Amino acid sequence: MKKIMAIVLAFMSIPCFAQNLSKREVMNTVKRVADNVVKNTTYLYFDRETGDLIPDLRKYGYNKNVVPQNGYNDWKYWNGVIHIAFNALGESTKTAKYQNYARKNFEFLFRDYDYLKGIYDGKGQWDFPIAQALDITELDDCGAMGASLVELYMTDRKAEYGAWIDAADEHVMKKQLRLPDGIFSRPKPYHNTVWADDLYMSVPFLARMGQLTGKAGYFDEAARQVILFNKYLYDERAGLMWHCYYDDVKTNGGAFWGRCNGWMMMATADLLRLMPQNHPQRSEVIALLKRQIINTAQYQSQTGLWHQVLNREDSYPETSCTAMFTYSVALAVNNGWIDKRYRTIALAGWKGIVTQIKGGAVTNICEGTGIGDDVKFYYDRPAPHNDIHGLGAVILAGLEVSALLDE
Taking a C-beta distance cutoff of 8 angstroms, is the pair 153, 161 a contact? Predict the structure, then answer.
């Protein structure tokens, strides 16, 4: 009874003005965020010591100070989310600058791929340009970017794209560290740590490989990971996901961090969007998504935003997890995976997100975050202006919310 009352109160707390959104208003906001990304994507390398902008890296030559001029032209998992978001925005609007955004980025990244691979020494992964594309050692390196590259490869069958996808497939399916039951794990911060984040770093890629190849095994593996991640990370009492599971001490760690819960919800929703209707685990995956949505809704604030630490109202309102939840709830409602009454959760979430958008920039996005030993670690994580970690999720959230609204 107590839990039922909490759910009812969660619905009652949603602002009534959430119902007054217009489709045009939502799409205009989405385009402002997307246009700001397009404007700041320069397709140049930059020498941090001399200040030189480098249009041709092979003529300039690599040195330790050379990096992409901006984060939009790098090979990181957050770029993969942005690519996926722009592909969806391009499909929705039929606008060339959005349709071609991921293509232009990959053309830039692969232009110097062979040159950079020829001089890469396997060290300094975070400093060397596109190192994560050159030396795949974790799901972070290949999952999200791989998912967006598979989307491009479906219409542009360049040999270099196919070769890289094959390498990523080899890593995800055969090389990535796992526990004995097959759940993905990492060697840090302790050997065989399960990270909630890794559900998104793997499942979207696996689902798209299922689409690309027509092989059911990819969907089987994706569903297995969703089920296992819920088994290891779900806290029955809180109804939330822990950031990690430490296999060495057989216990959960970190906190109920907002974005890791968002990664899991978004990965599950993304799988359902692509999974065959007759897949044997489909109903179980839907049930897990519904459980997460219903429980997470209890922690939404009256502003529509969720907090950096979901069960701590004195932690700051955080935009990326709010966007991930908003997207996933709206997608679930739009596809009938959950009752349409939950649309108010997504609409209020979008209203909260809008308060964090200034021009085309987004505020209160937590920066990249490892696993902390105590909850204070998560309280103290900075939220730089327009941090790239949440921009793709904001665009996806707006697109899905717009589909909830009548013309």
Answer: yes
Strand boundaries in 147-250, DSSP class E: 193-195, 234-235, 240-241, 244-246
Report the residue count for the chain: 407
Q: Which residue has the tokens 């990326």?
A: 320
Closest to 197 (Cα-Cα) out of 243, 239, 235, 144: 243
Instruction: Name the 3-class secondary structure at 194.
Output: strand
Residue 158 CA, distance from chain mean position: 25
For residues 244 and 196, the answer to whether their CB atoms sit within 8 Å is yes
Residue 22 has a CB neighbour count (10 Å cut-off) of: 12
Task: Number of helices (H) and strands (E) in the chain: give both, helices first.
Answer: 18, 12
Q: In a 3-state reduction of DSSP, which class is residue 269?
A: helix
Cis peptide upstream of residue 189 (ω within 30 degrees of 0) = yes
Question: Strands, DSSP E only, in 222-350?
Answer: 234-235, 240-241, 244-246, 251-253, 306-307, 317-318
CB 198 within 8 A of CB 77: no
Structure-token pair, residue 339: 């009752």
What is the value of pTM for the model shown? 0.95
At 111, the amino acid letter reads R
What 8-state DSSP symbol labels residue 316? P
Left, alpha or beta for 44 (phi > 0: left; psi -120 to 50: alpha)? Answer: beta
- Phi, psi (5° rounding) for residue 257? -70, 135
Q: H helices of 13-112, where? A: 23-39, 57-60, 77-93, 96-99, 101-111
Which residue matches tokens 């560290």?
Answer: 177
**pLDDT, one tens digit for every residue, the chain (407 residues):** 444 444 444 444 444 444 589 999 999 999 999 999 999 999 999 999 999 999 999 999 999 999 999 999 999 999 999 999 999 999 999 999 999 999 999 999 999 999 999 999 877 667 899 999 999 999 999 999 999 999 999 999 999 999 999 999 999 999 999 999 999 999 999 999 999 999 999 999 999 999 999 999 999 999 999 999 999 999 999 999 999 999 999 999 999 999 999 999 999 999 999 999 999 999 999 999 999 999 999 999 999 999 999 999 999 999 999 999 999 999 999 999 999 999 999 999 999 999 999 999 999 999 999 999 999 999 999 999 999 999 999 999 999 999 999 75
Q: Which helix (H) or strand (E) element contains residue 391?
A: helix 391-404
| b (16+ CB within 10 A) / e for 164-175 | bbeebbebbeee
Rounded CA-CA distance 319/14 in Å is 17
